[in-house]
Amino acid sequence: MLDDLKEWQFWTGESIPTPSYLFNLFLIIILILHKILNGAGGSRQLSGGIPSWMCSISSLWQLILGENNLTGELSSCLQNCTELYSLDLGNNRFSGEKPEWIGERMSSLKQLRMRGNMFTGDIPKQLCWLSHLHILDLATEFDEDMTYASYSYHMELVVKGQDMVFKSILPIVNLIDLSSNNLWGEIPDGITNLLMLSTLNLSRNQLIGKIPENIGGMQGLETLDLSCNCLSGLIPPTMSSITSLNHLNLSHNLFSGPIPTINRFLTFNDPSICEGNLGLCGLPLSANNSNPNDQNHKHVQDEEEDDEDGQYITWFFISMAMGFPVGFWAICGSLALNKSWKHAYFQFFDETRDKLLVFIIVNIARLKRKIDTPPPLTSGGCASHSIEIPSRYL
């Protein structure tokens, strides 16, 4: 029956019809209507909304509708599928708010993939009621390269920064991907209680505050991506005790202080995992990032030098402000009070002025004579010029 259903998918145009014979398939447990390659190298995608006949299959365990062009809000009739343990709606065009009834009615859900859609609003707190959930993928990024020729119990997830396809081990994958969701606030301490979580991706949000101190208790964590947020403070030393951690990305945050240099952190050699944190220092960053104590000491020295320069500038202006009036009145006051000094002072300036005037006149006359003098004649004669200078200047 499943083979007939997949063959029907190939030949159904672009929308999902309502075949009457599907109303009698009450025992169907897996419904696969994802994008599949056809024989000519192209592909068929379903469009429109989720039809109501799907909701009548109450025994459905898996509903795979990923990689299509389905639109609109999620139909509330899906809450009738209470036996679902895997729901894949990824890479479609669903819109509206994420429904609360997923957490209220689908208590058996283990795998929930809704990435690559256009949902808005908050993440419903009812999703926390899904105590059996292993995979929660609500990232908003769309995967363009999802093309398969068949679907056999597998799912594509972003792990360690790469798209990876999980097949046989999918039931034991424990993943939370909330990247690119515009989340804000602090990382809740309660997330450290998820001891078996293997992948946590909270990148490209607006998270603030510090990394929870108890994160070292998440011994099952293999991938941690907190990049492109506004997290600050020190990197908790307890993170070095997560022996299973093999992919870490803390770049483009506001972290400060030394990077731990024990246990797992000794294996991280890529400086890009910590880049964009101006306050961080130590390996694997470059040697230019010195010890914070040295930086603080240098900062204190720079401040002391700035203070000294400021004091010098202040005293310079004070001395200049006081020296000008003192010097002015010391000279002008003495000349005003002592007549002989005054006469000698002004006589000195008069004589200096006269000598300067004579020097200018003589040099101008010499220059003019050189310009006006004709070339020497063959008879050897030359014209004579005389300049009368007042006798009092001689």
Task: Give structural notes.
The chain has helices at 2-10, 101-105, 292-337, 339-372, and strands spanning 30-32, 36-37, 43-44, 47-48, 62-64, 69-72, 86-88, 93-97, 111-113, 118-120, 135-137, 155-159, 162-166, 175-177, 184-186, 199-201, 206-208, 223-225, 232-233, 247-249, 254-258, 279-281. It is α/β, with parallel strands linked by helices and 394 residues long. Strands 1-5-7-9-11-14-16-18-20 form a 9-stranded parallel β-sheet. α3 packs across α4. It is elongated, with a radius of gyration of 44 Å. The N and C termini lie far apart (133 Å). Mean pLDDT is 75; it is low at 1-15, 23-27, 36-42 and 145-152.
Strand content: 15-25%
What profile does the largest beta sheet have? Answer: 9 strands, parallel
Q: Count of DSSP helices?
A: 4
Strand order of the largest sheet: 1-5-7-9-11-14-16-18-20
